Amino acid sequence: MLQQYILKNKEAHYKMAFSYTKSKEDALDVVQDSIEKALRSYKKNGAPDHLNSWFYRILINTAIDYTRKNKRITLMEQEKMEFLLEAEDQYRNFDLETAMEKLPNAYKTIIVLRFFEDLKISDIAEVLGENVNTVKTRLYKGLELLKIEMKEDDNE
Amino acid sequence: MNKLDDLKKIYDSTEITDELEFKVRQSIRRTKLKNGMQLGKKFAIASVASLIIFTGMVNINQSFAMAMSELPVIGAVVKVLSYRFDVIENDNVNADIEAPVISGLEDEVLENALNEKYYEESKALYDDFIEEMGEIIEMDGHLGVDSGYVVMTDTDKILSIGRYVVNTVGSSSTTVQYDTIDKEEGILITLPGLFKDDAYIKRLSDYIIETMKSEMANDDSKVYWVGDDQFSSFESIDANQSFYITEEGKLVLSFDKYEIAPGYMGVITFEIPTEIISDLLVNSTDEGYVKP
C-alpha cells in the first residue's frame, strides 16, 4: 500500500522536495532518503493513520534537514538557476518567486501544502504536528509577508 | 489571489527528471531486497545442477563471463573461492557480481548453508538487474551493480567475511553483511551468542546513540537519524545487528546506508570498546572472540 502510494505520488513529492533544495540532484536525494525512512518506519511501526500527512511530514523534515546541511551548495545552485532562467523566461514573476524563496520555511511549507498541494488546513496541522489555529495564523502571516515583500520591491 | 496562481504555476512547472521514476523504484526495491537477504531457515544445499541451469540461462540472455578464481589460501583451514557473474551491456549498463565460496570448513552443513546463501543472494541481485535492464536501456538510463566480498579478519581462530552491494549509479555502498565463523569449532558466530543475555542490546544501543550525538555535536557534516525526528529516530540495534570482529578482537557493528543516517553518510560502522561490554560477554578473557 505504501509502495503504491509512493509510486503514484512521486512527482508531487519531487516538486515539494525541489521547492526546498532547488536542484535536481538534491531533490532526488531528499525523495530517496524519505522513501527509505518511510519504508523502514512502516516496517517497524506498521501503517500510520493518514498516509499522506505522514509521508509529507517525513518529506518535509528530510528536506529541511537537507537544506540546513547543504546551505552553501543550495545557494550556488539557486543563483545559477536564476541566472539561466532570467535569460529565456521573461513571463516569470521573479520578484514574487524571490519573495517566496525568502520566506522562512515555517510559512513557505504551509503555503505550498495549502495552495499547491491542495491539502486541508487540518491535514497540514497533522503534517506539522501543530494545532489548526497555529497553522491558520502562520498561513495568513505568510501571505502577508509575501505582499509586504512585494510592495517594498515595487517601491524600488 | 493572482499572485498565488502565478506561484502555483511556477511550482507546477517544476521539471520532472526522467531519473525520478527509476530512483523511486530503486529505493523501494532496496528495502525489499534487504528483507530477502536474511539467511533463510531452510539449509538447502547448493547443487551443481542449479549452477549449470543458471549459467545456461545467463548465456542465452547476455554476453557472460564466469570465472572460478582461487584466491591464495586464506588461513590454515578455510579457503575462499569465488565465482562471478558479469554483464556488460554498455558503459551505462553493467553488473559485476562476485560471490564467495567457502571450502575446507570442518562442518559441511554450515559450509553448504553459507555457500547456498551467497549464491542465492547473488542470483537475486542478478535477476533484479536483468529484469530492470530492458527498461533502462530503453530510457537510455544508467544501471550499475557491483557486488563482492571482503575478508575483514582472518586469524587462526576466526574468519569474518563482509559481502557488499554497491549501486554504482547511486554512489557509495548500499549494504554490507558479515558472517563470522569460528574456524576451530566450525560454527557461525552470532551476535546474541557472544553475550550472556539480552542486556547487550540496550548497552550497545545506548553507546551508539551517545556516540552519534557527540559526533553530530562535534562535526557539522555528520548527520544521524537520532533525537527529535520521531519517524526514523534510531532507538535500538537489531538483536542480530550486522557485525564483525577485528583481528584485535574488537566488536564492530555495521549499519547499512540509510539505516541510521541520510544516504550521503554511506555505510556506517562503530567499533565498540570492549570495556563497556566486558561484564556481559560470555567469555571476556583473551580466549574469547571479543578481547579486552
Oligomer designation: heterodimer
**Mean pLDDT score of chain A, rounded?**
79
Whole-angstrom Rg of chain A = 17 Å
Query: What is the CATH C level class of the largest domain in chain B, in words?
Result: Alpha Beta
Measure the end-to-end span of chain B: 69 Å
Count of helix runs of chain B: 6
User: Ends of chain A: how far apart?
Assistant: 52 Å
Helix content of chain A: over 70%
How many individual domains of chain A? 2
Task: Please write the CATH class name of the largest domain in chain A.
Answer: Mainly Alpha
| Fourth-tier CATH superfamily name of the largest domain in chain A | RNA polymerase sigma factor, region 2, helix turn helix motif
Topology:
The complex is a heterodimer of chains A (156) and B (292).
Chain A: H1 2-8, H2 10-21, H3 24-45, H4 51-69, H5 71-88, H6 94-102, H7 105-116, H8 121-128, H9 132-155
Helix pairs in contact in A: 2-3, 2-4, 3-4, 4-8, 6-9, 7-9, 8-9
Chain B: H1 2-12, H2 19-36, H3 48-61, E1 64-65, E2 69-70, E3 79-90, E4 93-103, H4 108-139, E5 143-154, E6 158-167, E7 173-182, E8 187-189, H5 191-194, H6 199-218, E9 243-245, E10 251-255, E11 268-272
Parallel strand pairs in B: 4-5
Antiparallel strand pairs in B: 1-3, 2-3, 3-4, 5-6, 6-7, 7-8, 9-10, 10-11
Quickly describe the structure.
Chain A is mainly alpha-helical and 156 residues long. Chain A contains 9 helices and no strands.
